[in-house]
Specification:
The complex is a heterodimer.
Chain A (H helix, E strand, L loop, with lengths): L2 H4 L3 H15 L3 H13 L5 H21 L5 H23 L8 E7 L7 H12 L2 E5 L6 H11 L3 E5 L8 H11 L7 E5 L5 H7 L3 E3 L2 H24 L1
Parallel strand pairs in A: 1-2, 1-3, 3-4, 4-5
Chain B lengths: L3 H8 L3 E2 L5 H6 L11 H4 L1 H14 L3 E3 L7 H5 L7 H16 L4 E6 L14 H17 L4 E7 L2 H12 L5 E5 L13 H10 L4 E6 L3 H14 L5 E6 L4 E4 L2 E4 L3 H13 L4 E4 L5 H12 L19 H20 L1
Parallel strand pairs in B: 1-10, 2-3, 3-4, 4-5, 5-6, 6-7, 7-10
Antiparallel strand pairs in B: 8-9
Classes of the chains: A alpha/beta, B alpha/beta.
Bound molecules: cobalamin and zinc ion.
């Protein structure tokens, strides 16, 4: 793994490796226990635990899933374990000083589509990176997206679609944003296995994100540009 | 009740199914993401014309526009109270077009929900939902129920229980689109053996990643199939591609004609198509199947060695070593 990881005390490294393995095996209680130990015994921050334990573990799960070694049942069990650990970290994330609030994200899987593993992963990673995330769940229609964007004064809209039959609905939502005069307020990120860069461009999204890591990078980078633009505007 | 499906299989060495419904409806203007099953009552002439296209192409049975017609899928469109009506309409239209000679298969697709313990749905709830759908299909006059595009054996079990409440014969196809397994990890061999144990005779694969992949899946099924099983394949017409604002499939009619021949060479007796296919594809398949079989068969895929589980084995070994190390230390 990384140099930073290699620099950690051996005992902590082992804890993280075990957490990754437990995550891989979908052992919820063990993953939660590891998370608590990392916090209490080693004084690790939520960001460190996410990076070295949970996200690193999910990366392995993701890779083996992609390679056809793991299948949906295993991925779901791993995602459940990760979610349980996130519940431990969540209260700490919001008031954790090391993570400055980056912005507000409204995220959901579009109408007609119930795939949410990838979208939830993106939501968790964004939370981990300091965003406030409003997760609308699955089968979300344009009205619900728009209402949530208004209600939470969102900076970013994230849409997920895993079906070729539901991805065109993203265009419908973007058109509605334009109609409602909200398109300039929000950065639109889209993702999901069948999407492509060309598709995202075609429907007028700001960025297509291949995976959760790219999603976090893009969210941060585009927020930076947005904040900068806001600053310039307020000076003018 | 006579089993019209087995009767047909006794009469004909090869039975040809039909092609896509969903992608045909999209082409006919269903682009707003609304429920295809609703079109059985709002646009019956469109659904009828699609059925007719497959009859004209020479299909021996046509499949009803009811794939997502269970209460869970219809609920996404607030149509969960119209399960019986929409399924009956799908079947009645098909019956009308098929006439007495061709068969009508009542399409039953997955709920899209996860069954216990992965998700909230119980076997009993799922079976009840499938029974409700099957009752509508039976009332509309289908000859058999086709449980299709399944990925979980638990869900197939529930669908079988539901479908069997009608007393109609049942065929089952699953979708092996994830490294030659279903997305829940079921192998073709597991599928054919388990389903046979559950009393299903016509078993196979549908949808998926196109003819080349399904060929290997059907080859695996043919290797593993217990005696008496009739194999069935309904491949997608290639893979979907996003092009100029539209989704199109790359499998042409000649590609699908060759696929039909290859299926026959593998001993598959029920041969049809799935997403992306049109009556033109089915007409090409009909012509191929009416002609002589392939003189020789060479697999179009690499015959698999035993699956490598390298990464997992390595990881487990490391974990085991750590565990024992820690226990010794304690
Ligand atoms: C798991 C799964 C399911 C589960 C979903 C469980 C759940 N709670 O999500 C179940 C079994 C319920 C399911 C059901 C169905 N599925 Co499914 N499913 C999958 C599967 C195997 C994996 C998806 C997944 O979770 N991947 C893992 C995650 C981590 O990856 P990901 O989703 O791509 O997300 C990453 C990126 O895309 C990105 N990302 C994703 N979303 C977002 C959003 C934003 C804002 C950003 C920035 C980034 C981003 O970041 C994520 C993390 O890195 C895929 C096959 C595949 N390999 O993709 C099929 C697949 C998507 N399903 C498919 C189908 C057909 C279905 C069904 C229609 C089956 C059926 N016949 O009924 C139903 C759909 C019901 C419905 N209406 O939605 C097809 C879609 C085919 C197509 N071209 O349209 C696929 C591709 C399988 C296949 N090859 O045929 N499915
Ligand atoms: Zn299909």
């Amino acid at each position: 793994m990384s140099d930073e990881f290699d620099a950690l005390p051996a005992e902590l490294q082992e804890l993280y490796l075990n957490m990754q393995d437990d995550l891989y095996d979908g052992l919820k209680d063990e993953v939660v226990e590891g998370t608590v130990r990392a916090l209490e015994e080693f004084g690790q921050t939520p960001a460190q635990i996410l990076q070295y334990g949970l996200v690193a573990g999910m990366d392995i799960v993701g890779a083996d899933f992609r390679d056809g070694i793991l299948f949906v049942p295993e991925v779901l069990m791993a995602a459940k374990a990760m979610k349980a650990a996130m519940e431990v970290l969540r209260p700490l994330l919001t008031d954790y000083k090391g993570v400055e609030k980056q912005g507000t994200v409204v995220i959901g899987t579009v109408k007609g589509d119930i795939h949410d593993i990838g979208k939830n992963l993106v939501a968790m990673m964004l939370e981990g990176a300091g965003f406030e995330v409003i997760n609308l769940g699955i089968n979300v229609d344009a009205d619900a997206f728009i209402q949530a964007i208004r209600e939470h004064d969102a900076d970013i809209l994230g849409m997920s679609a895993l079906l070729t039959t539901t991805m065109p609905y993203m265009r419908t939502v973007i058109n509605r944003l334009i109609e409602e005069g909200l398109r300039d307020q929000v950065i639109v990120l889209v993702g999901g296995a069948p999407l492509t860069e060309a598709f995202a461009e075609d429907i007028g999204a700001d960025r297509y994100c291949r995976d959760a890591a790219v999603a976090v990078e893009a969210a941060k980078a585009l927020m930076q540009i947005k904040k900068e633009a806001r600053r310039v505007k307020s000076m003018a | 009740m006579t089993d019209r499906l087995l009767e047909l299989l006794e009469r004909k060495p090869i039975v040809m199914g039909d092609g896509a419904m969903g992608t045909m409806l999209q082409r006919a203007g269903l682009t707003d993401g609304s429920a295809p099953e609703l079109w059985n009552v709002t646009h019956p002439e469109v659904v009828r014309a699609i059925y007719q296209g497959y009859v004209d192409a020479g299909s021996d049975f046509i499949t009803t526009n009811s794939f997502g017609g269970n209460r869970f899928r219809l609920k996404l469109h607030h149509l969960q109270d119209r399960v019986f009506e929409l399924n009956r309409a799908a079947a009645a239209l098909a019956r009308e077009v098929a006439g007495p000679d061709r068969l009508v298969a009542g399409s039953v697709g997955p709920t899209g929900e996860l069954l216990e313990p992965l998700g909230p749905l119980t076997q009993a709830e799922a079976a009840e939902a499938f029974a409700e759908q099957a009752a509508g299909l039976a009332a509309g006059g289908v000859d058999f129920i086709l449980i299709e595009t399944m990925s979980s054996l638990e869900e197939v079990q529930a669908a079988l229980a539901g479908a069997r409440t009608t007393g109609l014969p049942v065929a089952v196809t699953m979708t092996f689109d994830t490294n030659y397994r279903t997305m829940m990890g079921v192998t073709p061999a597991q599928a054919v053996q388990t389903l046979h144990r559950w009393g299903v005779t016509v078993i196979g694969a549908n949808c998926g990643n196109g003819p080349k992949e399904i060929e290997r899946v059907m080859w695996e099924m043919a290797q593993a199939k217990p005696e008496g099983v009739v194999l069935m394949a309904q491949s997608n017409a290639g893979l979907p591609r996003w092009q100029q604002g539209e989704i199109s499939y790359d499998g042409t009619p000649p590609v699908m004609a060759e696929y039909a021949q290859r299926m026959r060479a593998l001993g598959v007796r029920v041969i049809g198509a799935c997403c992306g296919s049109t009556p033109a594809h089915l007409a090409a398949m009909r012509a191929a199947l009416d002609g002589p079989p392939l003189a020789e068969y060479h697999p179009a895929f690499e015959v698999p060695e035993t699956a490598a589980k390298g990464a997992t084995a390595e990881r487990r070994a490391r974990r085991a070593a750590q565990r024992s190390g820690r226990e010794e230390g304690e």
